[in-house]
Inverse folding.
């Protein structure tokens, strides 16, 4: 099977004066563009709307939903058991009727003042709202990435100028040192 490379870079560097500085300018611009793209990708990965931070919050929300679902399933099993007992057990039916205030004709009611029968409340479940941190604004990520690229370009430009002036200044000194030495 024949496969072609994704892209091919063919670079020829010539040492002639003005062309070399133009090539260096191109390399600086290319490195600044790569820095911009890389910074954008890293920032998007960590603080973007689909980044790691947002994914982590989704995992916490999923765990909370799973816990709530387990709790609701337990309540459902309990209520299903109560329904089954009410449909089949005559004594359970009589106990539930008494708790609702229904009695047989030969039964009486004794009330104890200050005492209320404990009731087991049934939870309908929690309402879980997804709490998310505000992901970074895409404009902020783009601006920061562009600023990083510009800073890299300016630093490379300043450094290349400093190196070219130090090479020009250093050449006569070396010749003088060689002659004196």
């Amino acid at each position: 099977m024949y496969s072609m490379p994704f892209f091919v870079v063919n670079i020829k560097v010539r040492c002639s004066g003005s062309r070399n500085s133009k090539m260096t300018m191109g390399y600086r611009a290319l490195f600044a563009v790569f820095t911009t793209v890389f910074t954008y990708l890293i920032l998007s990965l960590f603080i973007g709307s689909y980044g790691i931070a947002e994914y982590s919050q989704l995992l916490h929300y999923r765990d909370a939903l799973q816990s709530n679902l387990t709790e609701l399933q337990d309540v459902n099993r309990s209520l299903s058991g109560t329904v089954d007992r009410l449909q089949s057990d005559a004594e359970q039916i009589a106990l539930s009727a008494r708790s609702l205030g229904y009695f047989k004709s030969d039964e009486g009611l004794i009330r104890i003042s200050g005492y209320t029968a404990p009731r087991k409340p049934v939870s309908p479940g929690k309402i879980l709202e997804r709490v998310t941190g505000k992901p970074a604004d895409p404009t902020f990520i783009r601006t920061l990435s562009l600023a990083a690229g510009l800073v890299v370009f300016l630093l490379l430009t300043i450094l290349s100028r400093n190196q070219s002036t130090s090479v020009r200044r250093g050449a006569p000194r070396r010749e003088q040192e060689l002659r004196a030495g």
